[in-house]
Amino acid sequence: MDIALIIIHLLSIILWIGGLAFVTVVVFPTIKGIEDPLAQIKVFLGVEKKFAALARIYVVIAGVTGITLFFMKGGFQWFRSSPAVHGMLIYKFIIWLIFMVALFGGEKHILKILISRETEPEKGFRIIGIMHWVMLVLTGLAIVFGVNLLFK
Question: How far apart are the first and last CA of the chain?
Fold first, then answer.
């Protein structure tokens, strides 16, 4: 297996999930220190816009390298090699697909709903924070599966 491809794959995931962790664990608590809810949202949207641009690149690279590695390991023959491999690969693909949809359009629609005149700013910001924590936990599990798959 091509070690350079694995390194590129891992680096893209480290930067993608590391950025998600930074936004979730550092940026959100910092923004909560701002008293004005509208100012909180404005700061969050500024950070999110810059991070989303980078995350799009990282997620695409992770997908391209991940699919390439999948076929280098035997493709669908490897996929069917055991129920554990099957389940881990499907889970990782679903997490990747969720981020692709979110980063390439879905997030804008969600934010329009959560940050609107009909939604209280505090409530919208709280829901966004919860969504980030959920995705961080789910991606953490995908990382565990990915490490496991490196040795299969």
Answer: 12
Flag whether 134 is in a domain: yes
Domain that holds residue 15: 3-147
Within a domain: residue 94?
Answer: yes
pLDDT tens-digit series, residues 39-97: 887 888 888 888 889 999 999 999 999 889 888 877 777 666 777 777 888 888 888 99
Number of domains in the chain: 1
Per-residue pLDDT tens for 111-142?
Answer: 666 666 676 777 777 788 888 899 999 998 88
| Residue 45 belongs to some domain of the structure | yes
pTM: 0.80
Our CA dihedral for 21, 27, 29, 33, rounded to 10 degrees, sits at: 180
In terms of Cα–Cα distance, which of 63, 72, 54 is closest to 18?
54
DSSP class of residue 2 equals: -
Running DSSP on this structure, what letter comes out for residue 75?
T
CA-wise closest residue to 65 among 143, 11, 101: 11
Residue 152 domain-assigned? no
